[in-house]
Amino acid sequence: MNDKRYLLELISEGEHQQQDFKYRVDDARKLARSVSAFANTDGGRLLIGVRDDGHIAGVRTEGEIYVMHQAAYKYCQPEASIRFDTYHADGKAVVIATVPPSDKRPVCAPDEDGQMRAYIRIKDENIVASPVLYTLLRESQKPQGALLVYDDDIRRLLGLMEGRLTLGQIIRLSRLPRHKVITLLAHLIRFGTVQWDYVDQEFLFGLASEGC
């Protein structure tokens, strides 16, 4: 398969959870958020030199590759792995930057205020991970225990979770400390008892049996 055909096949998929188009690459901090999101989720690829509408514009300068290196190795903490491959179509170069899922999660990147945040990829968006998902990312790097002990605090959480609730609602209803609710929800998600969803820019949590 020639380069142009391969690129057009990728572009025809549009932007999705594992693919993003980048027409211009001139802000390493902003780009680091995309790298963080891919590294913390299922991995993905950035098509550099492709407009949002799928038009191939081409990479303008070698400096754009340098910016990508900065995004992954300077502004991501810990560093994220990244691989670059260059393809050509109609005299224009497109660089595909492939980011695999990280084995050192959470990978954080600076937000607009310079605060380090963990991002995740949801559909075609890079979203700041909620405190629960941040804890889940961190805990996912540790060996999973053989079983989850259902103590009184967990029973209290499960007993109040009818439908889908925000973290704040769960904290208020359970009257448990915030940090404890976050940790327990992360454990319950990891064991498949609770599921999360992202709706209208909010993270919601509910029992897995209710199809959250």
Give a quick set of tags describing it:
9 strands; Arc Repressor Mutant, subunit A; four-stranded mixed beta sheet; alpha+beta; three-stranded antiparallel beta sheet
Folded structure, characterized:
This protein has a four-stranded mixed beta sheet with strand order 1-2-4-3. Helix 2 (28-40) packs across helix 3. The N and C termini lie far apart (41 Å). It has helices at 3-12, 28-40, 63-73, 131-139, 152-160, 167-174, 178-190, and strands at residues 19-22, 44-48, 83-89, 92-99, 108-110, 116-122, 125-128, 194-199, 202-207. 34% of the residues lie in helices and 24% in strands. A hairpin with a 2-residue loop joins strand 6 (116-122) and strand 7 (125-128). It has two domains: 3-128, Methyltransferase, Cobalt-precorrin-4 Transmethylase, Domain 2, CATH 3.30.950.30; 131-210, Winged helix-like DNA-binding domain superfamily/Winged helix DNA-binding domain (Arc Repressor Mutant, subunit A, Orthogonal Bundle). The protein is built from seven helices and nine strands. The chain is an alpha+beta fold and 212 residues long.
